[in-house]
Amino acid sequence: MEDRAQILRKMVANIYHPHSASIQGVKEETRDIKTLTLVFKDQEIQDHFTFQPGQFVLVSVFNCGEAPISISSSPTFSEGLQLSIKKMGLLTGEIHRYTEGEEVGLRGPYGNGFPLDELCGHNLLFVGGGIGLAPLRSLIQYVFSKRSEFGRVTVLYGARTPRDIVFKDDLAAWGREKDVKVLTTVYRDNPEWKGEVGPLSPLLEKAAISPSNTKAIICGHPAIISYVIFDLLKMGFAEDEIISTLERNMKCGVGKCGHCSIGSKFTCMHGPVFTYRQIKEFPSVL
Ligand SMILES: Cc1cc2nc3c(=O)[nH]c(=O)nc-3n(C[C@H](O)[C@H](O)[C@H](O)COP(=O)(O)OP(=O)(O)OC[C@H]3O[C@@H](n4cnc5c(N)ncnc54)[C@H](O)[C@@H]3O)c2cc1C
Ligand code: FES
Predict the structure, then answer these.
(1) Do 100 and 123 fall within a single domain?
(2) In this predicted model, what pLDDT tens digit does every residue of 1-29 receive, in sequence order?
(3) What residue owns the CA closest to ligand 1's atom 8?
(4) Does ligand 1 come within 6 angstroms of the Cβ of 67?
(5) Total H helices, total E strands in the chain
(6) Least enclosed by CB within 10 Å: which of 3, 39, 196, 286?
(7) Element (H, E) at 21
(8) Contact, 237 vs 211, CB < 8 A?
(9) Is this model's pTM higher than 0.85 or not?
(10) CA distance 99 to 217
């Protein structure tokens, strides 16, 4: 007969099964983005839950259904599992009303995650727009936890206005690290803003990015992904050196329902992380 620990380990391994997680912390990043720190109610599940930067979970809320959300913290991050959620509609609107101690369901992790082995030993250029910095933050934290395995790090971030900048403390802390450059731009400034104004592209030049031994990881609105890829190709980046995450409507998260299909691939299983060489073969993605 199986003991409780064996049964729980199987449940953790069963990624189809949602687990209750309670909200331990809520951080208001911007007027419409909050970062939740979550802890699984069951200690066994909490102890065994593992994931890779770039993976996502399906978050369930009673009466609202499920939504895919990237994990915004690194598996090496001491403060635990974090999700950074932008208020969009039914489910995300409800989550924004939640406070500490309330519960959501989580199943996963799903998706391929970033190719950590391939990134190892390279300089890394991160380009994020808006809430697109969330999955990148997971990888950036991971890189800082294994700093000697990676080269120079550059983070270029764009937000609508200074009030819409997410992870302000992280951006500041990353910028103080050795061999790290962080540049932030806003599309519309306010009188207090002393930084860059305008699109992300000029920051590529300002940061003096060289394609040599560099991998670029981009996440944001498809329009941002599209023009940044265009610039990187012009600068001499190879198609395999450009990595991006794609968002598609999802239901099952496990390659069964077809909602997230893109060409012959399922974004939930084969993605959401793809190289530009793969992306350009997909029909009308960007
Ligand atoms: C792999 C993946 C990772 C994601 N990671 C994050 C994340 O880390 N943080 C985060 O805030 N969001 C993330 N999203 C987007 C998130 O899943 C949607 O915003 C969410 O499903 C909206 O649910 P809702 O019930 O609140 O909105 P709904 O009531 O379903 O929709 C409200 C409005 O939002 C629009 N909408 C719904 N989904 C999206 C979407 N994916 N992109 C743009 N508009 C959408 C709808 O068209 C509608 O106009 C991710 C999506 C995917 C596929
Ligand atoms: S979400 Fe069902 S196949 Fe991807």
Answers:
(1) no
(2) 567 667 666 665 667 889 999 999 999 99
(3) 70
(4) yes
(5) 10, 15
(6) 3
(7) strand 19-28
(8) yes
(9) yes
(10) 33
